[in-house]
Design a protein that fits this description.
The structure is a single chain. With 409 residues, the chain is of the alpha/beta class. Helices cover 28% and strands 20% of the residues. It has 11 helices and 17 strands. The strands form 4 sheets. The protein has a 5-stranded parallel sheet with strand order 3-2-1-4-5, sandwiched between helices. The protein has a 5-stranded parallel sheet with strand order 10-9-11-8-12, sandwiched between helices. A 5-stranded mixed sheet has the order 13-14-17-15-16, with helices on both faces. The longest helix has 17 residues, at 138-154. It is globular and about 75 Å long. The N and C termini lie far apart (72 Å).
Length: 409
């Protein structure tokens, strides 16, 4: 039934925890909306023959169920809410009709007028979720949302002056995963972006806050899976910056800590493109801290060493002096080491590090999915396999692992 143009939508907050939500299509729209649905603990069924790398990673991690096929009648049976975002207009129309018949609230990415629900511009600050609807003007919704969120953050609730986005590229360290751990400057530049080229390990919840006109390019590098080649990322940065766009390269952690940030800066410099580097909170210190582990502690460790374990110790490409690392008495923090941790532990023991050295493995640190597994150098390889640890994970080796609030020295 058609409704008059002046009829306003009725705003409501859906409590979707444990309730079935069906998402049709797994492209950019789904990539933007899925994190919020997952954060709401919805029981998500994804129906799509293909997916972006980031959406595929969510399915591989067990965050949602993915049926690799096209929509068919009956998919919305038992659903409380549906997101219809396929690239097939006929399928979208059929799904919309099914939603209407089954009385399922449904959002359509291709035709808002035909939808029974609209997605508001949302943001989060100080424990408050802000949702704004302005009918048929999504850019205004995003602007009002941004003003309220900014006011909540600085305590003023006053809309900031409009900023003209600076052209060029900003390499923004997004921090370890929790969207609240991005820097204020990084968040501001993200809000001013025309194009965002985002890694899977960046704070993905922030993508849902971006206005609809912002182009998101998925540069997800799924460990041991498909990836966007670094050269392609560099070319995308250059192409969009030369087109006069404000570009943000959103990376996990810090751009210069195993983030290839300098490679991207060098590529931009070759083309005379200005680049701003915004440091981020590195997972090397923040993830252990979130798990209750200090990387240094008085009387226990006077230094910590960060090592990449993406290649095995006996690989000729390795640049690490593992014999020297084994002799260190402080804390060893390993990144990108889940696959090779067994070989790394054996190498460290072989070069003199005690097999009883405490080890902690922290998966998806600072996020809602964070978990910690404790072991020793002798047992960590088997523990990682038995506990089905998956990247991203930070591995901490040393006596600091056993230091806690009740430990006094």
């Amino acid at each position: 039934m058609a409704e008059p143009a002046h009829v306003a939508a009725y705003p409501v907050g859906l409590r979707l925890a444990g309730r079935r939500v069906v998402v049709l299509g797994a492209g950019q729209v789904a990539q933007r909306r899925l994190p919020a649905l997952l954060a709401a603990k919805a029981d998500v069924l994804l129906v799509s023959p293909s997916a972006t790398p980031s959406v595929e990673a969510m399915a591989d991690a067990g965050e949602l169920r993915w049926e690799r096929r096209r929509y068919r009648d009956g998919d919305l049976d038992g659903a409380w809410y549906a997101l219809i975002s396929t690239d097939d207009p006929a399928a979208n129309e059929a799904a919309s009709a099914e939603a209407e018949a089954r009385r399922v609230w449904a959002v359509r990415s291709d035709d808002a007028e035909a939808a029974s629900a609209w997605t508001p511009a949302t943001g989060r600050a100080a424990g408050v979720t802000v949702a704004v609807l302005t009918g048929r003007d999504p850019r205004r919704s995003a602007a009002v949302r941004d003003a309220v969120v900014e006011g909540l953050r600085d305590g003023s609730l006053a809309a900031p002056h409009h900023r003209t986005a600076a052209k060029g590229v900003a390499l923004v360290g997004g921090g370890p995963g929790d969207p609240d751990l991005i820097t204020v400057r990084g968040r501001r530049l993200l809000a001013e972006a025309d194009v965002v080229i985002a890694d899977r390990l960046g704070p993905r919840d922030l993508l849902d806050e971006l206005p609809p006109h912002v182009e998101i390019i998925d540069a997800a590098k799924i460990p041991y899976g498909r990836f966007m080649a670094q050269e392609a990322i560099n070319n995308a940065l250059i192409q969009h910056a030369k087109a006069g766009k404000a570009v943000v390269r959103l990376k996990g952690g810090d751009p210069f800590v195993f983030g290839r940030g300098m490679e991207e800066l060098q590529a931009l410099a070759e083309h005379g493109i200005p680049c701003t580097v915004v440091p981020g909170i590195s997972s090397t210190i923040s993830v252990p801290a979130a798990a209750g582990i200090p990387v240094t502690h008085r009387g226990v460790a006077h230094e910590f060493t960060v090592v990449s374990g993406h290649v095995a110790p006996d690989d000729p490409r390795s640049l690490v002096d593992w014999e020297a690392v084994a002799r260190l008495r402080g804390t060893l923090v390993l990144l990108m080491s889940v696959e090779k941790i067994g070989a790394i532990a054996e190498t460290l023991i072989g070069h003199g590090r005690s097999a009883d050295t405490p080890v902690a493995v922290v998966q998806e640190g600072t996020t809602a999915a964070q978990r910690r597994v404790d072991a020793t150098l002798a047992t960590v390889g088997e523990r990682v396999r038995a506990e089905h640890i998956r990247p991203p994970a930070v591995i901490v080796i040393g006596d600091v692992v056993t230091v806690g609030p009740d430990t006094h020295r």
